[in-house]
Design a protein that fits this description.
The chain is of the alpha+beta class and 414 residues long. It has eleven helices and 23 strands. The site of zinc ion (ZN) has 8 residues, from loops.
């Protein structure tokens, strides 16, 4: 993409209302645009990142046998009354039509998916089933904050699984847990799994996937020796205690951001809708269900909170909007301009994603500043000085080197 044609360029100033790093950097660098508190437009650069996270999540969900669907967002009041959510869930976004009928926008969609799946799975032979979607979700937050990390409208993967019994749910939970850990690793994040209260969803335990970051909203206690990790909300241990799991490590307190969760729903939703299946003996049973959430827009915010410096964002390669930020300098010189255009074409022919700063009216300083702010993994410069070569610098490095096109292609393909 030619930067000159990108309508959403970087802003000179950070937005005044930005109180978090992700809001400030994503807005200033031209990835998102705030419509109102907790609601954002995703601009061309931001959508590329969102789509990359989405693709990784989709791949891993398909891998565990999840079947992708797209459920309705606008839903009738009756289904939420049937489960008690209409009165109990304070963040449920309720709306009224001109005929004064009431509706809700999904914040999680057990109320939609349970009738959808159970009406098509009459027998134990049809189970287990897992269905997921990647879609917008809504929460009627009193105060939306934390940039795109906690929105009134947010982009999320939600999967629901249906099982004959609790053992089968637990078996599947372990499989999804491994898939989640693979997703975070591919996103450049290290996640820990904690047990926390089930919130509005369930009387039972839920599992939370947390990434350690100073911008986090949760406090967790974790062991450095093993995978023990607990949210302080429900912890029966404290900082400095011996780890109850391995008896070796000491517990450390850290700030963390929730990047996914799993709820053990038990048989609640099948019972609420009186929708079951016939077991081996022909008796009616209610399904054991699990709900598996992963906030895609939220994870994008967490990545920015985790990977930035005083100049801007440092995107991990797996989700960067482009792999190379090609900068042409001295473009008023026809020879340099031709060479830059040629490199741009050749990189694109090799399927390398390039953002090409082809603006002729801007100096090197301003172009470098924009490149640092946007945070693409590699910056490649072509100028009078570089001659037949290309000056390459990784975003997080201070040293650059002169290389040829083949080297540039091999480095960025790694
Ligand atoms: Zn331990």
């Amino acid at each position: 993409m030619r930067y000159s044609q990108l309508f959403a360029k970087t802003l000179r100033q950070a937005p005044k209302e930005a109180d978090t790093v992700n809001h400030r950097l994503l807005t200033q660098a031209g990835f998102v645009d705030q419509v109102m508190a907790g609601v954002y437009n995703y601009l061309p650069l931001g959508l590329r990142v969102l789509r990359k996270i989405e693709a990784i999540v989709r791949e891993e969900m398909n891998q565990v046998g999840g079947q992708e669907v797209l459920m309705a967002m606008l839903t009738p009041k009756a289904i939420w009354e049937q489960t008690g959510a209409w009165d109990k869930v304070d963040v449920l976004f309720k709306i009224q039509s001109r005929t004064e009928k009431e509706y809700a926008l999904g914040y999680s969609q057990e109320e939609v998916v349970t009738p959808l799946v159970m009406s098509r799975t009459p027998s134990y032979k049809d189970l287990p089933v897992s269905a997921y979607q990647i879609h917008w979700k809504f929460r009627d937050e009193l105060r939306a904050k934390s940039g795109i990390m906690r929105g009134r409208e947010f982009f999320m993967k939600d999967m629901y699984s249906f099982h004959e019994n609790q053992e089968d749910f637990l078996r599947f939970y372990e499989i999804v847990k491994q898939a989640y850990l693979r997703i975070y690793a591919r996103l450049g994040l290290t996640a820990k799994v904690t047990e926390a209260s089930g919130g509005a969803f369930s009387e039972k335990i839920s599992y939370e996937f947390m990434v350690l970051t100073d911008a986090g909203e949760d406090d967790i206690l974790y062991c450095e020796e093993c995978d023990f990790c607990v949210n302080t909300e429900i912890a029966k241990v404290k900082e400095g205690d011996q780890c109850p799991k391995c008896d070796k490590g000491m517990l450390k307190l850290a700030k963390a951001s929730e990047v996914g969760n799993v709820f053990d729903l038990g048989q609640k939703f099948g019972k609420d809708f009186d929708l079951g299946f016939a077991d081996k003996d022909g008796n009616k049973q209610y399904p054991f269900m699990g709900c598996y959430g992963l906030g895609i827009s939220r994870v994008m915010g967490v990545i920015v909170e985790k990977f930035n410096d005083d100049k801007g964002i440092l995107w991990p390669k797996s989700v960067a909007p482009f792999q190379v930020h090609l900068i042409g300098l001295d473009l008023d010189d026809p020879e340099v301009k031709n060479r830059a255009e040629e490199i741009y074409d050749q990189l694109q022919d090799r399927n390398i994603e390039v953002l090409y700063d082809n603006r002729i009216d801007l100096g090197a300083g301003e172009k470098f500043k924009d490149a640092d702010l946007i945070g693409i993994p590699y910056r490649a410069i072509i100028s009078k000085k570089t001659g037949d070569q290309i000056e390459l610098k990784a975003r997080q490095e201070s040293e650059s080197e002169l290389i040829d096109l083949d080297k540039l292609i091999s480095v960025t393909n790694e």
